[in-house]
Amino acid sequence: MSAPDAVKIGIVSISDRASAGVYADQGLPALQDWLSRALLNPIHFEPRLIADEQSTISQTLLELVDTGCSLVLTTGGTGPALRDVTPEATLAVADKEMPGFGEQMRQISLKFVPTAILSRQVAVIRGSSLIINLPGQPKAIAQTLEGLKDPQGQQLVNGIFAAVPYCIDLIGGPYLETDSTVCQAFRPKSAIRTPQA
Ligand SMILES: Nc1ncnc2c1ncn2[C@@H]1O[C@H](COP(=O)(O)OP(=O)(O)OP(=O)(O)O)[C@@H](O)[C@H]1O
Ligand SMILES: Nc1nc2c(c(=O)[nH]1)N[C@H]1C(S)=C(S)[C@@H](COP(=O)(O)O)O[C@H]1N2
After folding, report:
1. How far is residue 183's CA from residue 23's CA, in Å, rounded to a whole number?
2. For residue 113, how far is its CA from the centre of ligand 2 (angstroms)?
3. Nearest Cα residue to atom 10 of ligand 2
4. Coil, strand, or helix at residue 137?
5. Predicted confidence band at 197 (pLDDT cuts at 50, 70, 90)?
6. Domains in the chain and their CATH numbers?
7. ipTM of model
8. 125 CA to middle of ligand 2, Å?
9. Whole-prediction pTM value?
10. Positive or negative torsion for Cα 144, 127, 25, 179
11. What does the pLDDT read at residue 195?
12. Between 153 and 8, where is the model more confident?
């Protein structure tokens, strides 16, 4: 079997208070922990902790795309508060919008909290990078990426990450492989790479 492709992933925590040191940031550790458990590929993380400033967020996303991140996950700043501008900053750097990710995240999150409808999270493609907004609550990161399982581990609602590897195939990125006990990635049969001797 050939070794899995290496992948560069940008992780961006967007929080006025965590970036100012008012509380310890839990967004970057939660993103890094979940991705390290879910992916079999060697990952190079590009972490950023920034305030809720639209221009800073857009600039950070552009820098991460330019540096070769195939995937960029943000957390925070998706709600209705005046300072919440992550979706606007993300749409400002988009080549294409991918509405299915936001729709599915709100569906998943509604199984956990009724206020899920307050999250305006979006996902976009820029060049060969997929950028996805996640809500700011640290526990929402695993919930939206992984979905909801019953106590036996049976998937009740698909998390959004199941669709991420194939999306990255389609934009010319590395072939992502997942640990199916954390996240069962879905690809059409014709897109599944046959193991090489
Ligand atoms: N990066 C983070 N690290 C730890 N906890 C966070 C983080 N971001 C959000 N939270 C927690 O989730 C709650 C809701 O997140 P939200 O993004 O709405 O924060 P906020 O009120 O906009 O403030 P801030 O931008 O200063 O984090 C916060 O009150 C906080 O308890
Ligand atoms: N899975 C999940 N989604 C969630 C939440 C949560 O606790 N868990 N919080 C909601 C709330 S209260 C808000 S205001 C919005 C936006 O949060 P953000 O501004 O931190 O991104 O996400 C929503 N989505």
Report:
1. 30
2. 8
3. 116
4. coil
5. very low
6. 7-191 (3.40.980.10)
7. 0.94
8. 23
9. 0.96
10. positive
11. 59
12. 8
